[in-house]
Amino acid sequence: xxxxxxxxxxxxxxxxxxxxxxxxxxxxxxxxxxxxxxxxxxxxxxxxxxxxxxxxxxxxxxxxxxxxxxxxxxxxxxxxxxxxxxxxxxxxxxxxxxxxxxxxxxxxxxxxxxxxxxxxxxxxxxxxxxxxxxxxxxxxxxxxxxxxxxxxxxxxxxxxxxxxxxxxxxxxxxxxxxxxxxxxxxxxxxxxxxxxxxxxxxxxxxxxxxxxxxxxxxxxxxxxxxxxxxxxxxxxxxxxxxxxxxxxxxxxxxxxxxxxxxxxxxxxxxxxxxxxxxxxxxxxxxxxxxxxxx
Amino acid sequence: xxxxxxxxxxxxxxxxxxxxxxxxxxxxxxxxxxxxxxxxxxxxxxxxxxxxxxxxxxxxxxxxxxxxxxxxxxxxxxxxxxxxxxxxxxxxxxxxxxxxxxxxxxxxxxxxxxxxxxxxxxxxxxxxxxxxxxxxxxxxxxxxxxxxxxxxxxxxxxxxxxxxxxxxxxxxxxxxxxxxxxxxxxxxxxxxxxxxxxxxxxxxxxxxxxxxxxxxxxxxxxxxxxxxxxxxxxxxxxxxxxxxxxxxxxxxxxxxxxxxxxxxxxxxxxxxxxxxxxxxxxxxxxxxxxxxxxxxxxxxxxxxxxxxxxxxxxxxxxxxxxxxxxxxxxxxxxxxxxxxxxxxxxxxxxxxxxxxxxxxxxxxxxxxxxxxxxxxxxxxxxxxxxxxxxxxxxxxxxxxxxxxxxxxxxxxxx
Lengths: 294, 414
Description:
The structure holds two protein chains of two kinds.
Chain A: H1 13-23, E1 31-35, E2 42-46, H2 47-50, H3 54-69, E3 75-85, E4 91-101, E5 111-118, E6 126-130, E7 138-143, E8 148-152, H4 168-172, E9 179-189, E10 192-201, E11 210-216, E12 222-228, E13 234-246, E14 250-260, E15 266-271, E16 275-276
Antiparallel strand pairs in A: 1-2, 3-4, 3-15, 3-16, 4-5, 5-6, 6-7, 7-8, 9-10, 10-11, 11-12, 12-13, 13-14, 14-15
Chain B: H1 3-15, E1 25-39, E2 52-65, E3 71-82, E4 90-101, E5 106-113, E6 146-155, E7 158-165, E8 186-193, E9 203-212, E10 215-225, E11 230-232, E12 243-247, E13 249-261, E14 264-275, E15 277-294, E16 299-310, E17 317-318, E18 324-325, E19 334-343, E20 351-359, E21 365-375, E22 379-389, E23 405-413
Parallel strand pairs in B: 8-12
Antiparallel strand pairs in B: 1-2, 1-23, 2-3, 3-4, 4-5, 5-6, 6-7, 7-9, 9-10, 10-13, 11-12, 13-14, 14-15, 15-16, 16-19, 17-18, 19-20, 20-21, 21-22, 22-23
């Protein structure tokens, strides 16, 4: 269950229900069941991520609603242009394609394949990720010039992703249950009423002590996130613009703007239209597919 | 490069895919590199060139995929022109193949391609499908295209690849004018095979690979002509004025492992090879540990250390039928590699890699340094240096003792 703005997927409702009915509730000691949404689908809350105080539970519920409204997309493919802007305003760009497979079970992370089309010297370089919730993700890097696939450490959560203002964890850790939450208050952003919720990484090696997410109350999409570094100072602000609705009520932002307040640098992501329903399955995200890229 | 093999590859590729070349999608690119290699000392062997060696290389990458993504044609020609060494002026089809990707979980590749197996950094023992292109550098990282039929299965229990390799390619070596060669030049036209082998012999290989949690595992078996030749001096004239290449039929079993945990990568490669003298084993084992965001910058520093072991015996063994057999010489019988990798993670992808392989018996050292950086959107600059330090006269690196060099390479991408 990726939190709304995830560059990676969101999840499927129906499969959660199937897993529940198949496994039976006895096997799910640490989770509670919430009957949710107009679809009548069943979701499983993670009680450890949801916490025990009213503020943490309300925060979790807001994040969960945001996440689950767009679940069930199955798979997607999208191109984006990443524009890196330094403090002097000079820009460089990268063109990237991301393919994502939504894993139906909220307790398992999604799978994604990131392929670089430019800069030309790294064309065909790819990153395959099998996300997990609290365990380190499995990641492989593919270097087309050497035909070499390399398992890489995913401990580098806070490092910059290809020289951008996005950290690795901004790309790969947007799963609902990777955080605990704390509801702050209602507020207003860009003329919209929003719920303001703090979230705290549960996984290791995060570069953040907390993030503050602003989620609108109409279509439940994350509109802004503020990132606080290990010294609890405001590090970055991400705004998510140009939400468009796809078939099945799936919403996607098509412009991400990440500003680093400490360096003055900025990274923008401009998305093309998403493709859904590609009919992908787990076999399309095994490490052997890397060799087919280039 | 055999012209016959190029034609075979192309006609096979086209024959398998008739009348489909108009639809689908083309994706073409190319790169041109200009390089100057400067040696720090004058050459010492007769016929070798001077201190300065300029060259140009060109590589195109033409690929076509059908609209449904099932059919793929790839053609990657390479050409190099060297100012000093005739052998370094050469052309190759790095890749030229047709590939069919099934809806299910298998694919079939027919043509010339490149395949990499393995995990370790200092030596690639398990990697055996492609012949080394030994004129580009001494690090054995450059490979010649290998004609193959490769059938691959991607299953939930792992990946299984079958290879039929219908044509053998000779290793390339620097010519008489080239630096970084043995004291006697290697004659390309005098290539011999044991067991009456010829180049159109058929070799076979199979590989299984998968991951299990934090473990990545590969197991491979190869039966065919060794990619590694023995370099032999002819009986006459005496003293010999050149070396011949002699290739043996071998069977090689390989295992490669990687254990990934936090910032640690633990790596192992091992082989057992039969067919060159006594059956021998060789292994590389070590680790890479990365310190992330050092000095509160975006810089990552990885430290790498590996131990290299090889128990081959290069002594001649006379078999009962009067034939002699032996293993090719290696420099890595009992060596330690130590190195460091620095990635600045800036928009130019600036990186530095430096290390040394040290022979624990005689203390001979091969030191290298590589630095790379992108310039603008479509250029890269690379600096490479190799130094052979404290080399024992009996070590195979002794021939390179006066060949310390620095290379500057500028590459333009189209």
